[in-house]
């Protein structure tokens, strides 16, 4: 079925009455039977099961499948017919996931707590996300092996030419139509993952599996799904929504996927945004953020960490020997609201989900509370996007310490060593509490995971001074272009630029001029070849020469091409370390017993001249701290619980 056979309907508002949800108008198919089918999506759960933030060691009403589960069960009671799907990124992303991967372990036959929780909800099918590959293929297979629901993925290919998982399947279901009669339908389901996993997890996949383009995989398999008699085809697309001309190999390909004939419904994810709605998707041709459609086809993106349940309500009408979508609505149901800047839970914890992971939850609490050392200074990330920052410096120092030791017997031992690190927890889509904040005193394992949230391993690359400069130019794309001549208030931070791509390189000194346009766009493409934001780049007190050679300590994601940074495409790697960056930080602290990371002003922002007021947002707890090397003043409250500051000069 193509998009021309779908009638657009306005998206339901969150919390609409059940009667309104299912009261889709008849569409003129006469006396033929009508089946109303509810399709539900979870996505990007990242082992967030309980409403708990292990980093802060505190309850958190904004996360958790245990809360989403209550919405799932309520949504099922409203509909005669329903299906529940998951869109990937299940087994990595919280200290609970790390506990299982690094402390408890996963043997064949073991039940991963994420799977244990999902098994209580009777999912109908799922797909793989890119983070499923972070711990290796054996761990992936062991983790998902006891799932009571199938998992499909059409674009990951093993060395023998077979897909890693079954590319698609047909769900034979008996539904009840509007007259009360039983109807047998075939629901086709196909899954996709970003093809970039071969770069991001090269060490785990090299020689074992590769990927193909998402749209190419769909065009190969969807005709076969239709030939198998599918009445409706649902795409589980762990890939986001982006505009522009299709070139192949896109990381965020859901909009292009919507053009494939034969796909009826698209469940998206990966970007950690929400759809329908979501200002990130405004003004993209083919995207209707109000109706929740991609090229006219119904689609949802259900946030992240269990924040929302995505709902697509279909009205299916008999058309000859098959069925067609006569009408639809899309909707997101959140697990919490924010009222007067406070989080208010909209649902309770599901007892069955909580019981399924009780032992692992309690073991994780014990695990993250284990001590590793102390800090004599506060470590926080409230101002990490506008000034040199101690939380980033601690990571950079630990990486350099670790790499220097491994390189001391190699030909690279005498080359100048730099270290690149980024502030991972810097608010944004994570919310006003999504910042690192560690007070002086004991440091525990939970703090290591707070400072460095990803399971990256350490790499070192050999690059030139010119590549270091371009690396920093790419990082500086996080800033909007400030226009002094325009004056007035101007936002400094580009909210669509991920904080994990704002690399700070320790060992050199430089300044950043946000009045210049960015050389690179959000995807790392050179767009302004004459622009230069990086000023006064020096090493050891001298200007960095283009042909000067450096070793830069970084992580496997960046070194392998993640983020499309100059000098990082996998060919410049000179050291592949087996240890997690987080473990290196922990060893660094254990050896020193006490750390006192200090921002030394190695980089700074140039203050724009004129009457312009440059503003940015941060968390409310930022008021307890002052950034290094820059003067800021609190302006007032900002939406979603954030606080607005201005750069005072």
Automatic annotation (TrEMBL):
Its cofactor is a divalent metal cation. InterPro entries: 5'-Nucleotdase_C, 5'-Nucleotdase_C_sf, 5'-Nucleotdase_CS, 5_nucleotidase/apyrase, Calcineurin-like_PHP, CpdB_N, Metallo-depent_PP-like, TAT_signal. This is Bifunctional 2',3'-cyclic-nucleotide 2'-phosphodiesterase/3'-nucleotidase. SUPFAM superfamilies: 5'-nucleotidase (syn. UDP-sugar hydrolase), C-terminal domain, Metallo-dependent phosphatases. The lineage of its organism: Bacteria, Pseudomonadati, Pseudomonadota, Alphaproteobacteria, Hyphomicrobiales. It comes from Microvirga thermotolerans. The keyword Signal applies. Keywords: Hydrolase, Metal-binding, Multifunctional enzyme, Nucleotide-binding, Signal. One of its GO terms (cellular component) is outer membrane-bounded periplasmic space. Residues 37-272 form the Calcineurin-like phosphoesterase domain. The keyword DNA damage does not apply. Residues 372-566 form the 5'-Nucleotidase C-terminal domain. It is found in: Cell envelope.
């Amino acid at each position: 079925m193509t998009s021309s056979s779908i009638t657009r309907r306005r998206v339901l508002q969150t919390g609409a009455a059940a009667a309104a949800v299912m009261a889709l108008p008849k569409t003129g198919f006469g006396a033929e039977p009508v089946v109303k089918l509810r399709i539900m999506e979870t996505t990007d759960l990242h082992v967030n099961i309980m409403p708990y933030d292990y980093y802060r060691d505190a309850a958190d009403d904004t996360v958790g499948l245990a809360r989403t589960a209550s919405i799932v069960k309520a949504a099922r009671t409203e509909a005669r017919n329903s299906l529940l799907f998951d869109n990937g990124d299940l087994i990595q992303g919280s200290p609970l996931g790390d506990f299982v991967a690094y402390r408890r372990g996963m043997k064949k036959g073991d039940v991963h707590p994420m799977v244990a929780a999902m098994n209580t909800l009777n999912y109908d099918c799922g797909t793989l996300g890119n983070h499923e590959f972070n711990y290796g293929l054996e761990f992936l297979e062991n983790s998902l092996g006891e799932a009571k629901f199938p998992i499909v993925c059409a674009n990951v290919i093993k060395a023998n030419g077979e897909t890693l998982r079954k590319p698609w399947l047909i769900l034979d279901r008996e539904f009840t139509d509007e007259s009360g009669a039983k109807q047998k339908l075939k629901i086709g389901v196909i899954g996709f993952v970003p093809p970039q996993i071969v770069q991001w997890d090269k060490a785990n996949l090299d020689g074992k599996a590769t990927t193909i383009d998402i749209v190419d995989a769909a065009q190969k398999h969807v005709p076969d799904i239709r030939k198998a008699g599918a009445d409706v085809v649902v795409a589980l697309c762990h890939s986001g929504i982006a505009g522009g001309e299709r070139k192949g190999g896109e990381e965020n390909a859901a909009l292009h996927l919507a053009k494939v004939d034969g796909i009826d419904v698209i469940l998206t994810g990966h970007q950690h945004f929400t759809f329908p709605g979501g200002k990130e998707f405004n003004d993209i041709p083919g995207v209707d953020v109000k109706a929740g459609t991609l090229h006219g086809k119904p689609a949802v993106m259900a946030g992240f960490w269990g924040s929302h349940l995505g709902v697509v309500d279909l009205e299916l009408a008999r058309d000859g020997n098959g069925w067609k979508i006569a009408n639809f609505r899309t909707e997101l149901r959140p697990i919490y609201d924010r009222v007067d800047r406070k989080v208010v839970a909209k649902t309770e914890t599901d007892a069955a989900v909580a019981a399924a992971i009780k032992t692992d939850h309690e073991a994780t609490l014990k695990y993250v509370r284990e001590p590793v050392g102390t800090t004599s200074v506060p470590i926080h990330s409230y101002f990490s996007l506008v000034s040199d920052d101690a939380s980033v410096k601690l990571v950079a120092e630990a990486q350099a310490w670790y790499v220097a030791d491994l390189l001391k017997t190699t030909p690279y031992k005498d080359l100048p060593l730099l270290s690149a690190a980024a502030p991972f927890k810097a608010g944004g889509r994570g919310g006003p509490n999504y910042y690192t904040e560690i007070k002086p005193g004991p440091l525990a394992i939970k703090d290591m995971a707070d400072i460095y949230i990803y399971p990256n391993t350490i790499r070192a690359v050999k690059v030139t001074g010119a590549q270091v400069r371009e690396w920093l130019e790419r990082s500086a794309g996080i800033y909007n272009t400030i226009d002094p001549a325009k004056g007035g208030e101007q936002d400094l931070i580009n909210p669509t630029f991920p904080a994990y791509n704002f690399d700070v390189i320790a060992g050199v000194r430089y300044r950043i001029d946000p009045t210049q346009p960015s050389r690179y766009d959000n995807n790392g493409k050179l767009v302004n070849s004459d622009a230069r934001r990086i000023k006064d780049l020096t090493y050891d007190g001298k200007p960095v020469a283009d042909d000067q050679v450096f070793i830069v300590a970084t992580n496997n994601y960046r070194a392998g091409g993640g983020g499309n940074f100059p000098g990082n495409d996998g060919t410049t790697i000179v050291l592949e370390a087996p240890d997690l960056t987080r473990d290196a930080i922990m060893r660094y602290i254990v050896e020193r017993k006490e750390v006192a990371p200090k921002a030394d002003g190695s980089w700074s922002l140039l203050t724009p001249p004129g009457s312009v007021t440059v503003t940015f947002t941060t968390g409310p707890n930022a008021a307890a701290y002052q950034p290094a090397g820059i003067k800021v003043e609190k302006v007032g409250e900002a939406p979603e619980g954030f606080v607005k500051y201005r750069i005072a000069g």
